[in-house]
Amino acid sequence: MTDASGPKRDQGLANLSIDPDLLAQELAAEEDADPLDSIALDDDEDHSLEVARACDQGLIWLAQGHDQRLQALRVFCEHRDPRAVPQLLPLLDRPCPVERMSAVYALGRNPSAPAVEPLLQLLQLDSNAYVRKAAAWSLGNYPNAPVLNPLIRSLQTDVAAVRLWCPGSLAEAGHASRAQADPAADQLLASLKIDSEPVVRSNCIWALGRLYEQLVEPRQQDIIEAFVAALLHDGEASVRDEARTALEQLEDPEILARLQTLIEDGFFA
Question: pTM of the prediction?
């Protein structure tokens, strides 16, 4: 995947955090940059006393005004505390998109069954693309919930900023269940061929690589051929590089030999 989503590849969705202040600034400026570029790994979870104090303060802030709530949401985007969930859920209905968006990220960090339906509603119906994007990311932490079809629809129809995060969440959903793996892969293969955004195509490749072991052999062959096609024909170098990396990571001797033959025949360096 792209640099913005690389930590997902290495550490999993649940280990990511987000800075609501950055999101607020980007909303106010109506910029097109990716708010999720600010995601970073949380390396401080072992500082249990510090985390407990931060969460205690966050619970107090959640019951206060707008600015305090945003500070609290920063806390719960970084740390897990089930006590926060009952106060986070009502924030999904706030008129301020920054609060809604930050609450969505916090509920991705703090998955809870009562959050599934409102998150799905936001993914499908919220008027703000940043909120829908947050929902697409957070629903990856709910792989056993009925998230597959809504994520597929978003990957088919939503704006690029939202589509960007659907492949990773589809990979999480498909990886949790073999019954979900094939329909997820089917849509990812389609989007790899037709999506207009190179970063979305790259993320589809990453997601298909994650699902590969969950799939039956004919579907695995479809994925290999799609990767080879992307490697040889995609117009964007970053997508070609992602396809080559994905093929190499399968560590299949026949695939590696095929890649070597393509190199020797001059199809790529």
Answer: 0.82
Domain with 110 in it: 1-114
Q: Cβ-count burial of 158 within 10 angstroms (0-12 exposed, 13-18 middle, 19+ buried)?
A: buried
Cβ burial 10-39 (10 Å sphere, 16+ → b, else e): eeebebbbbbbeebbebbeeeeeebbbebb
149 and 262 both lie in a single domain: yes
Residues 222 and 183 in one domain: yes
What would the two tokens of residue 136 be? 């697409």
Give how far Cα 195 sits from Cα of 18, 56, 199, 229, Å.
27, 44, 9, 14
Per-residue pLDDT tens digits of the chain, which is 269 residues long: 443 344 333 333 334 345 555 555 545 543 344 434 444 444 444 568 888 999 999 999 999 999 999 999 999 999 999 999 999 999 999 999 999 999 999 999 999 999 999 999 999 999 999 999 999 999 999 999 999 999 999 999 999 999 999 999 999 999 988 899 999 999 999 999 999 999 999 999 999 999 999 999 999 999 999 999 999 999 999 999 999 999 999 999 999 999 999 888 888 76
